[in-house]
Amino acid sequence: MRLAFLSFASLYALALAGLALVGCSRIPGRPGPGPEVVRPEEVLDFPTLYKANCVACHGENGRDGVAISLANPVYLAFAGEDNLRHITANGVSGRLMPPFARSAGGMLTDQQIGVLAHGMMQQWSKQEVVAGLSIPQYRSTLTGDGARGQQAFGIFCARCHGAAGEGSIGDAKSKTGKIGSIVDGSYLALISDQGLRSIMIAGRPDEGMPDWRSDAAQPMTDQQITDVVAWLAAKRSLNPGQPYPTQP
Questions:
Q1: Looking at the structure, do residues 212 and 182 belong to the same domain, yes or no?
Q2: Domain boundary residue, one of 134, 165, 193
Q3: Whole-angstrom Cα distance, residue 179 to residue 17?
Q4: Which of 156, 146, 147 has the alpha carbon at shortest distance from 203?
Q5: Which of 134, 163, 184 is the last residue of a domain?
Q6: Which domain holds residue 106?
Q7: For 49-91, what is each residue's pLDDT tens digit?
Q8: Global pTM?
Q9: Which residues contact 168 (CB under 8 A, 6 or more apart)?
Q10: How far, in Å, CA of 128 to CA of 131, rounded?
């Protein structure tokens, strides 16, 4: 009978003690355990990593982007997994390709960089496409000559890109029917010498551009590719985008 004379505060304390004995997990309305949180550095799924880091420039499924097609078997055979890993990790200094490795200022771990490079090779390389081909090496050891490069450009490239690289209209292979200038200062400021070499060797099949075997009677030699790169590189402006002449 003494329980009837307990104060409200005492009854409230007894109720809390009872809940503690039962366990908080049985409190009505308490949410259950949520989904497991995955830290960004723990993501090791190639499609997820590619979509988050590469698709904006290289396109869905490695093609139809503004940058070189990664789903091009010729490019993958030409570059190789080690170069893919190095470029993804360190980017290209002074160009649009940023570094993605944490050690170079990016957000990805070395393991994630490896997943991306290996995933590209697994997803898009096709050995049967490049079987028997003698593809030029990734980096040339030759010295380029701009004068010879202009001549080689006229033989292998001018039919689509114009005699001076100014572009052309009405090319059947281009999606838009128009090929822009490749000697434009803004374009040359955004692409490296290695980028020019890579496109000449691997082509842009998504844009109808042939690889180094071209449409000529003979494929381009390593020396001719190197010379054309030298000719294009010589056309870069020291101050791209500067509308006013440099003061003496």
A1: yes
A2: 134
A3: 79
A4: 156
A5: 134
A6: 41-134
A7: 999 999 999 999 999 999 999 999 999 999 999 999 999 999 9
A8: 0.79
A9: 160, 161, 162, 178, 179
A10: 5
